[in-house]
Amino acid sequence: MRFALPLLSALLSLCEGDVGDFSPCLSFFYRSRPPTGIVGTPICQRYRNRYHFATLYSRERRSPWFSGYVFTPPQGKRPRGAWKYEPQLANSRADGNMALFPIPPAKLDQNVVESQAVQKDYTNSTYTRGHLNPNQHHNDTIARRATFTLTNIVPQKAQSNEGPWKKLEDRVTKIMQEYCLGESYIVTGVIPYEKDRWLKDEGRVAIPEYLWSAYCCQNHSLDLPNSLNSIFPTFGAIGRNDPNSSQEIVPVNPHQKKEEQGYDVRLMPLPVLEGYLMKRYRKSISIFEQQCSGV
Ligand SMILES: *[C@@H]1O[C@H](CO)[C@@H](O)[C@H](O)[C@H]1NC(C)=O
Ligand SMILES: *[C@@H]1O[C@H](CO)[C@@H](O)[C@H](O)[C@H]1NC(C)=O
Ligand SMILES: *[C@@H]1O[C@H](CO)[C@@H](O)[C@H](O)[C@H]1NC(C)=O
Ligand SMILES: *[C@@H]1O[C@H](CO)[C@@H](O)[C@H](O)[C@H]1NC(C)=O
């Protein structure tokens, strides 16, 4: 009996989940500190028994607040996206790896449907599945496949997803590849509407009014072109997801290509981005410790 207790607690810690606690995946955040000020359910995104990134999830909104990851230079082709879900949101004792949606006629457990977004939520909607952590910011196939979990996805208009937001992801890839010498920590999240809007008005999956993103790269090239001087060590951006939004946060460029009009992305320094988040979330929000100042 003397050994039973330690054995039991060892077993329990083995079964301990990857949902509800960022401690197994703090390495995806600058100085191991997740953004502060936003409340949600932490998910350590595990796929094939390895952690790939971290997500703060909103159970009420069945969509993520943000995902945090470390950029690695992309290699290889975009993988075929087989969509996955997080079993532990439905059952805390479920396997900690993300799981593939079953192929019909196999049915998904109703507890999974209640606890998170599922394929059906996006079917027949006017939104695409927008990655917060994009597959192209990773260098191996498994890490890329791991981004195809709906807990990393928000409803995003195709014009943004395939237009200005895609260009932002490409731009960040180029800048990091050329000028970041060490780790580049990226966090990408959402700004909700003042009053929530839902996919297909079903009250299940909340639609973001804007997407935001910021990176922190302390160890960067000192040989920067003048135009890039102000974008290290940290910079951010906010992108429109609704052409009807006001122009206070992100102005609309009327000379933009017609299909991209109203989906503009505005680059901005980190404190300006945090200011907009603070206004909408009505809370002080810090994305990187000490604003990635290195002190
Ligand atoms: C999508 O629309 C088609 C055609 O109207 C309909 O048959 C199908 O049931 C819809 N699927 C969902 C998940 O709403
Ligand atoms: C991907 O990047 C990581 C971190 O820099 C590195 O350890 C790993 O070897 C890279 N993998 C490939 C396939 O290049
Ligand atoms: C920055 O990165 C370069 C290249 O990887 C490395 O040689 C150097 O030691 C790093 N500097 C710091 C301060 O980490
Ligand atoms: C913008 O407003 C128009 C007119 O009210 C409406 O038809 C359209 O669906 C709205 N767009 C979005 C993305 O909400």
TrEMBL record:
Q: Where is the DNA/RNA non-specific endonuclease/pyrophosphatase/phosphodiesterase domain?
A: 49-270
Residue intervals of the ENPP1-3/EXOG-like endonuclease/phosphodiesterase domain: 50-270
Is Signal among the key words of this record?
yes
Q: Which Pfam families match?
A: Endonuclease_NS (PF01223)
Q: Please state the span of the N-terminal signal peptide per the UniProt entry.
A: 1-17
Extract the GO molecular function terms from the UniProt entry: endonuclease activity; hydrolase activity; metal ion binding; nucleic acid binding
Under InterPro entries, the record lists: DNA/RNA_non-sp_Endonuclease_sf, Endo_G_ENPP1-like_dom, ENDOD1, ENPP1-3/EXOG-like_nuc-like, His-Me_finger_sf
Its domain of life reads Eukaryota
Q: Which UniProt key words apply to this protein?
A: Endonuclease, Hydrolase, Nuclease, Signal
The record ties this protein, via SMART domains, to: Endonuclease_NS (SM00892), NUC (SM00477)
PANTHER family referenced in this protein's UniProt entry, alphabetically: ENDONUCLEASE DOMAIN-CONTAINING 1 PROTEIN, ENDONUCLEASE DOMAIN-CONTAINING 1 PROTEIN ENDOD1
This protein is called Endonuclease domain-containing 1 protein
